[in-house]
Amino acid sequence: MFNLSERIVITGVGLTAPNGNSLSEFRRHLLEGYACIQRIDMRYMGLVLAGVCSFNATDYQSKKELRVGTRAGSIGIYCAHKALESSGLNIQQIDKSRIGIYVGITEHGNVETENEVYQISKYGYDTRFWNHHHNPRTVANNPAGEVSINLGITGPHYTLGGACAGGNLGLIQGVQMLRLGEVDMALVGGVSESIHTFGIFAGFKNQGALAEHVDPCKASRPFDKARNGIVISEGGCFFTLERLDAALARGAKIYGEIVGYGINSDAESAVLPNSQRQLECIRLALKQANLRPQDIDIVNTHATSTVLGDIRECQALREAFKDSNKTYFNNTKSFIGHAMGAAGSLELAGNLPAFEDHIVHPTINVDELDPECALNHLVINQPKHLQKVDTILNNSFGMLGINSVVIVKRYNPVG
Fold this sequence. Notes:
Blueprint: E1 8-16, H1 23-32, E2 38-42, E3 46-51, H2 63-68, H3 71-87, E4 99-105, H4 110-121, H5 134-138, H6 142-151, E5 157-161, H7 166-180, E6 185-192, H8 198-206, E7 232-233, E8 235-243, H9 244-249, E9 256-265, H10 275-289, E10 298-300, H11 307-320, E11 328-330, H12 333-336, H13 343-351, H14 354-357, E12 359-360, E13 384-385, E14 391-398, E15 402-409
Parallel strand pairs: 3-7, 4-5, 4-6, 10-11, 10-14
Antiparallel strand pairs: 1-8, 1-9, 2-3, 6-8, 9-15, 12-13, 14-15
């Protein structure tokens, strides 16, 4: 059992999603079944479906800072400020050299490069018109670095390129660094600016994996028999992480305790998931947390609405939880689409309030369940009220076969 200085807890949550700019708003919309997907005009492609965030970036940045920085940086800055406000911490009273910033991303820099190439094409590709802010905008550590500069945090900052597992990886890195004593507090999570690059849309379209539906808000439909691909979204979510002893000393609200995680690799395909490796990752997390499958109350699935991807994950879940009759399954992408590097952190955040309200938010847009995606206690279209919720398991899997699982428990003083 971990001692108080090794137990890591979530004391703040800040987010922006296509259907909410705070945890309370996000949660309310998940319980109400409110999705928010729209059509945007994508250069070279015309109208495409996307999840778009509507947070006010000028709450924490000047207009000049917005011109110099990136969309991913603005998302990170907004989420970091909200996570700190949520935690009740005054950053001016904290040793900023002891704060770490760990941000998961799917990719970074494509947006800026595409935009610059397009702009100079109007001027005969004359590089004199190339923006001199391009290099700091496109380096991989940019989203975390912009947060560091904005908040004056002098501790370590970096991003973790974990594809669609990135949000979980940011959180896991924070846990590890706190336990090692490298930092005393961490801002962790993931960001996505993916809707601002045509390349990702074109890539998924050419793979036959880009969703389409006459009603944009019904396009993201994990487990549905008629699902036809991913809805690409932007968004972000940061958590404030602290050691338990520090959180208790200041009387902080504790949203949950991170008790286990797993990371592994398929080592097989660039895009096709491996259900056996996903199963092994789930079991790694359970073993580290010293939990049995029947100890898990909610599993937030990764399912993205691709035909094979959803099936493979369900195969892993059926095997992992075959001995549990109390585990419920849901999916958040059905509301907001796939927020790529932010997916894991946003989806975990959307489930955390279940520790207080004891409700499993549903998977929406399931008109006809694919028999190959059938799971015992899959919560479809309507919320499910439980007597209590003590443990949440969050799946996030990414391209090149990276798998991540995080387990969070309701805080219990005795461990």
